[in-house]
Amino acid sequence: MKKIIIISALASLICAGNVVAQEAKSEKQANNAVKFRQSIFQLVRSNMGPLGGMAKGQIPFNEQTMEVNGQRIEQLGLMIEDYFALDTTPIDVKTGAKDSIWKNRDDFNSKAMDMVKAAQALQLVAKNKDESNYRKAIGAVGATCKACHDDYKKD
Ligand code: ASC
Q1: What residue's CA is closest to ligand 1, atom 9?
Q2: Residue 45, ligand 1, Cβ within 6 A
Q3: Most buried residue among 12, 89, 126, 128 by CB atoms closer than 10 A?
Q4: Distance between CA atoms of 147 and 121, rounded to whole angstroms?
């Protein structure tokens, strides 16, 4: 009895967040999950676009855009763990996500959190009008995109 109590207490600790890992059970469910995941990354891309333009000197630095887009990327980044909780590898779906994501969940989630942290740092730099660090802070966000793509995005 004691063992059961300890085990269930541990289980509830492990499942403390909203995120419960599951395997996709149908094509419809898996395809929906892919669409939702891709929606997140499309919005990340949309918000990275102007930031990348600033870092490359194509458009002027704009603190407000840096803050707003940084906040959006932060929020989107926080959704990644949840939206990847469903393992779609049992179903044959068209996806850019590598199967290795679900074999390395902790690393994948920690790479998503690296983006969150870099996006938070960017907001702070913009808020403080810390001009000499604008490029670096944007570059740091982009580097977290690349780090995850290198390991977990096909092609
Ligand atoms: C972007 C974008 C990415 C990252 C990456 C940074 O703007 O679309 O995937 O930055 O290219 O290296």
Answers
A1: 145
A2: yes
A3: 126
A4: 17
- Ligand 1: does its nearest atom lie under 6 Å from the Cβ of 139? no
Q: What is the CA radius of gyration of the chain?
A: 18
pLDDT at site 3: 62
Q: Which two tokens stand for residue 15?
A: 């499942």
Question: Could you identify the residue written with the tokens 């670096």?
Answer: 136
Cα–Cα separations (whole angstroms), residue 60 to 73, 93, 135? 20, 41, 11
Residues of the chain with pLDDT under 70: 1-18
- Region of 102 (left: φ > 0; alpha: ψ -120 to 50; beta: rest) is alpha
Strands, E, within 18-119: which ranges? 22-23, 86-87
Q: What's the 58 CA to ligand 1 centre distance in angstroms? A: 15
CA of 55 to the centre of ligand 1 (A): 12
